[in-house]
Amino acid sequence: MKFQVNRYDQVGSTNDVALESARSGAEDGLVVWAQQQIRGRGQRDRIWQSQPESSLTFSVLFHPNQEELAILGRFTALGALAVAQAIKAKTGFTARVKWPNDVLLNGKKICGVLAETDLQPGKVNAVVVGVGVNLLPGAFDANTATNFPASDVFSETSCNLDAEAWLWAILEKIKVLRQLLPGDAFIREWNDYLAFKGEMRSIRNHKGETGLFRLLGVSSGGSLLVEDADGQQFSFQSAEILPSSSSSSE
Q: How far is the C-alpha of 6 from the C-alpha of 86, rounded, in Å?
């Protein structure tokens, strides 16, 4: 996989730029990197803040091959895992992937990932994976309410690499992980970095109902495997893991 990095001072959303580029014939591996995005978005239509110098905001364009078309849901995890592995490589700290799309460091959110698909008549034309990483203090508004407290890489690790160094560190991990994407090895990596594995956590399903479940892992289909207090197992394809003081690892 070869990367072509296009750098912008400011955009509305790097995902939007990448999706438009895909429709105009851009090749696999295009990277849209913005110093600031003013209409960034995350999962469930939430706003993803981005500030010059203290944030890293970029999107990668993929044209899925035949094998990848069957596992499009894994592209979100591809971005999150790449960030977690880059942090491990550069700082020695272990970041965790909060299913399905956030990266936590010391229990605080430092990264969000949003994958979007460009659909053309009869086919998937492209997948765009947007990544936003808080690198330094000031990357986010501390007054913004979030389920998990926000932080930044420097505050949690004292590592002060510049944004471009982090960009290439993450892209290198994306390149390696993409080779694993269709197989079981990718799911094993995902489970190795899964946040709260083995713990009891509050989980809110797509209907807004909340219950307490133990996280067992991620299935080959990308769903979250859990069990309730009675030992009955379930899987979630769409849900949100909430902060829980009742978690306990066994």
A: 21
**Side chain identity at 222, as an amino acid letter?**
G
Q: What is the CA radius of gyration of the chain?
A: 17
CA-based angle 33:195:206, to the nearest 5?
A: 85
- Tens digits of residue pLDDT in 72-113: 999 999 999 999 999 999 999 999 999 999 999 999 999 999
Listed residue (134, 143, 166) closest to 48, CA to CA: 134
Q: How far apart are CA 177 and CA 172, in angstroms?
A: 9
For 43, residues 6+ apart whose C-beta sits below 8 A from its C-beta are 100, 101, 112, 114
- Summarize pLDDT for 42-67 with one digit per residue, the tens: 554 555 556 677 899 999 999 999 99
End-to-end Cα distance, the chain: 40
d(CA 230, CA 213): 10
Rounded Cα distance, 186 and 81, in Å: 10
